[in-house]
Amino acid sequence: MELDLGAVRAFVAVAEDRYFSEAAIRLEMSQQAISKRVAKLEADLGVRLLSRTRGGAEPTEHGEEFLKHARALISLADQAVERLHGRRRPLRVDVLGTRLATMEVIRAFHADHDDELELVTPGLGAVRRPMPPESVDAAFARVSTVTDPAIGRTPAYLEPAHLLVGRRHPLARRRRVEMAELDGLTAWMPYNARASEWAEFWQELCPAFGILVDTDGPNFGLEHHIEVLSGSKDRLGFVGAKMHVPWHPDVVRIPLVDPTPVYPFSLLWRHENRHPTLPLLIEHVRTGYRPFDADRQWLPVADRAAMGAQG
């Protein structure tokens, strides 16, 4: 039996992104085409690789086993094409999303080094990943520990959190808000209804400060989220200080203090990776990182040791 490499690539994209729609964006194909390729691969192999649910798609037991080999196949195929054409491929970096602080880190690196980059953006729906996909050279993620000796990790950035409220909210005229003032208030987070790196962080933070959480959706995206907050007197939201948020005349953004919650981004890579630009990126991230300040900032306990020092 001969495997269809395009079908294998489609399966890997869905398994990593957990959504057919996000895999379609990554591969620049229609969602229907992705579904057909995955269905053909499952038919050829005679096993079900993905379990499709309302919340997305999860690899089955067979899918998890096949995924390791599928990633290796894609990596070898890409390397073969690159060597055939005699060119060095761009450094592929998973930045989680183009609106996030990780883009600022990459922009600064590119400005200093002018190396060719290819950015991968699975978005905020990304599940927590203990290691970067084999399809990329490096990845930003929230990872408190790394137990696999094949994986390298360094703290990358601690992003302060900001409060989002409509102009009719009682806190709207404040220049900054202390975390204790949020006790008993409700944060509207429809995007926290499913597991993700971002959702897990806020699921730990909100109870620590007595913040109530409303995940009622559906989640129609950031623009809709901003629009709903603009007309609310009691709902509030959170964004990262460096996150690019659509401007709205009736929504204000306020820094949080005493302490300032910070979201922990780490950079992950595989030690076996020999891309010549990777060491430059690692050094850039390590040099620019400012360690966790326990007197002014807040992190979940599990993240504190990992983000407290470079290494």
Short description:
This protein is α/β, with parallel strands linked by helices and 311 residues long.
Question: What's the number of structural domains?
Answer: 2
Q: What's the number of extended β-strand segments?
A: 13
Q: What CATH architecture label of the largest domain applies?
A: 3-Layer(aba) Sandwich
Helix-and-strand structural type: alpha/beta
> What is the average per-residue confidence, as pLDDT, rounded to a whole number?
86
Q: What is the multimeric organization of the chains shown?
A: single chain
Low-confidence stretches: none
Order of helices and strands: HHHEEHEHEEEEEHEHEEEHEH
Q: In percent, how helical is the residue content?
A: 25-40%
CATH topology of the largest domain, which one? D-Maltodextrin-Binding Protein, domain 2
Largest sheet: 11 strands, mixed
Count, helices: 9
Q: What characteristic shape results from the CA principal axes?
A: globular
| Percent of residues in β-strands | 15-25%
- Nearest-angstrom radius of gyration? 21 Å
Spatial separation of the terminal alpha carbons: 46 Å
CATH class of the largest domain: Alpha Beta
